[in-house]
Amino acid sequence: MGIPAGAIEALRDARHVLVLTGSGASAESGVPTFREAQTGLWENFNPMELATPDAFLRDPALVWRWYRWRRELVARAEPNPGHYALAGLVDRIPQLTLITQNVDGLHQRAGSHDVVEFHGSLFADRCFDNDCHLDAHTSDDELPRCPQCGGLLRPGVVWFGEPIPPAALDAADAASRDCDVFLSVGTSSLVWPAAGLAEIAAGRGATVIEINIDATPLSGSSHFVLQGKAGELLPELLDCLDVEEH
Ligand code: OAD
Predict the structure, then answer these.
(1) Could you give the 3-state DSSP secondary structure of residue 30?
(2) Which of 83, 126, 128, 209 makes an SS bond possible with 110, Cβ 3.0 to 4.6 Å?
(3) Nearest of 20, 21, 23, 50 to residue 34 by alpha carbon
(4) From atom 15 of ligand 1, which residue's Cα is the shortest distance away?
């Protein structure tokens, strides 16, 4: 593929890089993305019947079965070279903010720290009835109960119509306004407010680089579009950064 020299230079000169990942970053780990036909996670499920508070109230056991299935699928998956490359990027950039829309925890398993989980995590159950504060808690009961109030527990992911966790939103907003380079990896750039972060960064003069196998609504306004697989392009990007400047 060959990575444009301009993209490497932008990363080399950057003081602060924001990386936003989507399910395409986990695709090569065998974790289905959301919107791809045939392989998409939603191929066999209707998200509007599963990933909403109403769906949970209607049939909490069904929703838990879906999320437990996803948790088991992810637990069997392994980080791919793209996750490891991003974990290594932190040693090559003065300041790196990694924001993920993924709930699979694979960035952390690849060694990334301080990951901003914009849509929550499959591995952090939350209290549905009273929003009790729980440490990272996962239960395998059919209908897990809150250890504090005895109410229903729910998966710790953001559902349709729900707000982004305030701490994650603040961190993402601040990083979008401060970064010199915005690197979008494996996201269709369709779901807001995550899809709006690149625009904020570009509006402050950041260089926008997109890695995706397909075109997205972000492609047209990106300074560099690297078409290909995250698991291949991210390690290549890191290698280019490691090549001593002539
Ligand atoms: P999507 O399934 O919408 O998009 C995945 C993107 O990754 C697509 O643009 C694919 O072309 C691209 N892709 C697939 N395989 C790739 C690979 N190996 N390398 C690079 N790119 C690849 O998933 P997201 O954009 O993550 O939100 O979806 C955003 C949000 O929509 C999710 O976080 C989820 C969903 O609603 C919640 O659950 C709240």
Answers:
(1) coil
(2) 83
(3) 23
(4) 24
> Measured in angstroms, how far is the CA atom of residue 145 from the centroid of ligand 1?
31
- Which domain, by its residues, includes 67? 32-76+122-157
CA dist 45 and 95 (Å) reads 39
Same domain, 141 and 223: no
Q: Which atom of ligand 1 is nearest to the CA of 51?
A: 38
Report the mean per-residue pLDDT for the chain.
Answer: 93
101 C-beta closer than 6 A to ligand 1: yes
Q: What is the pLDDT of residue 139?
A: 74
Residues 65 and 129 in one domain: yes
- By most ligand atoms within 8 Å of CB, the mutation choice from 213, 219, 225 for ligand 1 is 213
Domain check: are 193 and 108 in the same one?
yes
CA distance 233 to 212: 9
Catalytically annotated residues: 119
Asked if 144 and 234 sit in the same domain, the reply is: no
